[in-house]
Amino acid sequence: MLSFIIYKLLVCVIVFAISLGVAAYSTLWERKFAAFLQDRVGPDRAGPKGILQPLADGGKMFFKEEIIPNVSNRFLFILGPSLFMLTALMTGTVIPWGKDFTTTAGNTYSFQITDINIGVLYLLGVVSIGVYGIMIGGWASNNKYALLGAIRASSQMISYEIAMGISIIALIVTSGGTLSLREIVESQDAGVCNVVWQPLGFLIFFVCALAETNRAPFDLPECEAELVGGYHTEYSSMKLGLFLFAEYINMFISSAIMSAFYFGGYNFPFAQELYNTLGLETGSIWISIIGFGAFFTKIIIFINVFMWIRWTLPRFRYDQLMNLGWRILLPLSLLNLAITVVVEYFRGNIQF
Amino acid sequence: MQLTNRSKVVSDKHQTALEKLYLPAVLKGMSITISHLFKRSATVKYPEQKRAMAGVYRGQHILKLDENGAERCTACGLCAVACPAEAITMESAERKKGEEHLYREEKYAQTYEINMLRCIFCGLCEEACPKEAIFLTDRIVNTEFERDDFIYGKDKLVEKIDKRIDVTKRQTLEVAKFKQLADTKHNTVWTGKQIKGKH
């Protein structure tokens, strides 16, 4: 029992550390990537090649003056960013990071904090709580711009969650009616990942993930040109840092979810052949680690695509955003669901 | 009248179904941005790496010393008059006995100030100077934190005797010709006995 607790704690700490580490270096890579796309060099002053830039940014955030407006609701003002950060970190718990491995003593350990059988619902639930962080933060600031940004954020997130949810239903139908993330990933073990069966579903999910993470071109909640700073106008110091940082964690987690849902998670083509050539037996820790590496590579690619999109596309206008969400993505996702059900019926995966 | 063939006929026709998808346009835009990933950076790492500057660059001014190390400036004020930004001010003084090694002629600039925030680096002062005392060099004016620090006095403007600054590139052909004109004699030390037309 004690070893179980220690092992779970260890996994928790590792996932926590990886989330934060990836998010921290995403901030650097975002700037670097933007610089490369714009024919610049990017930040390169802090440490060799600018490798210490996230530390410098974090340090700066800590040493900045912390201002809590007099007219704000102090408790909610602090709760806002905390909640946003909390939900961002909570989503990492159900993601299967690698295959289970068995020690020589016969104990099986998995690269996952917990495998609950309603993992997908848990994800949707936690993600939808994330909007409360923005909403509370924007409202408690007692600032018009912050409130407008918060309203935009909440309406945007709610609108896109519907299309996202329906595209996930289609995915669940494809992957055999399970809500557990591990089982969804395992169902793609055969070599064909879900994106082959769900190209439209993936597209919808991807667009919705962009909107959910408030990234460009859907960064209306914080569009500087219209709303000063959006929902975090009144925030300063590390509370602002939490908001910005949580966005990067969200990006990391949604990249992980997309790779798990549609691109086979820790599976990769010719995995079994590779393990056979390396002479690894089933349950070996090296299989888990290689799988984790494959999963991580997919995540990094997705993060890069996120950034690539951000530095390419201009921001949507608000009515265009709502049009896209309600009048294009929602009918499309319903159509996708209908097609999926028909296709799966003829494939013999579901019976009526 | 059509001057170039770059103008495009604007049409207000509705988007086609393919255009309404936006995806082709999105992919096109993304291919453009990703192509820049493989291009050379257009910027340089400035303090370590400097771009080559034109030899005749108009940067920070210098008040030249003559070959003996005496100041050439006689505080005539022509540069201040020529200056379109009114950046130059000066006060003149009379040379005392025993200061001949310091000042070339018997009038000199006691103070000479250029406000580098006002200066537009047009080079008209240099053009106006009859004594070839002021030149613009290829040095860049430093950034400062205080506005007052941008007012450069003689301590910063006058060339150091042991650190001469080469301005030959800015001495144009016209300047060289002007120097050779016998009737101007602008470059000769006036002793009070010289006769016009003789060198």
Helix content of chain A: 55-70%
Which H/E pattern describes the elements of chain B?
A: HHEHEEHEEHH
How much is the radius of gyration of chain B in Å?
Answer: 27 Å
Radius of gyration of chain A: 21 Å
Describe the protein's architecture and organization.
The complex is a heterodimer of chains A (352) and B (199). Chain A has one domain (65-347). Chain A is 67% helix and 1% strand. Chain A contains 13 helices and 2 strands; from the N terminus they run αααββαααααααααα. A two-stranded antiparallel sheet of chain A has the order 1-2. In chain A, strand 1 and strand 2 (108-109) form a beta hairpin. The longest helix of chain A is centred in the first third of the chain and has 36 residues, at 2-37. Chain A starts with a helix and ends in a 5-residue tail after the last helix. With 199 residues, chain B is α+β, with helices and mostly antiparallel strands. Chain B has a domain at 61-180: Alpha-Beta Plaits (2-Layer Sandwich). Helices cover 20% and strands 12% of the residues of chain B. The mean pLDDT of chain B is 82. Chain A binds chain B through residues 35-41, 44, 308-309, 311-313, and chain B through 26, 29-30, 32-34, 36-37, 39-43, 45.
Write a short abstract of this structure.
With 352 residues, chain A is mainly alpha-helical. Helices cover 67% and strands 1% of the residues of chain A. Chain B has 199 residues and is of the alpha+beta class.
Summarize the topology.
The complex is a heterodimer of chains A (352) and B (199).
Chain A: H1 2-37, H2 53-63, H3 74-90, E1 101-102, E2 108-109, H4 119-140, H5 144-174, H6 181-186, H7 194-197, H8 199-212, H9 224-227, H10 237-262, H11 271-278, H12 285-310, H13 318-347
Helix pairs in contact in A: 1-10, 1-12, 2-10, 3-4, 3-10, 4-5, 5-8, 5-13, 8-10, 8-13, 10-12
Chain B: H1 17-21, H2 23-35, E1 61-63, H3 78-82, E2 88-94, E3 107-115, H4 124-128, E4 134-136, E5 151-152, H5 154-157, H6 173-180
Antiparallel strand pairs in B: 1-4, 2-3, 3-5
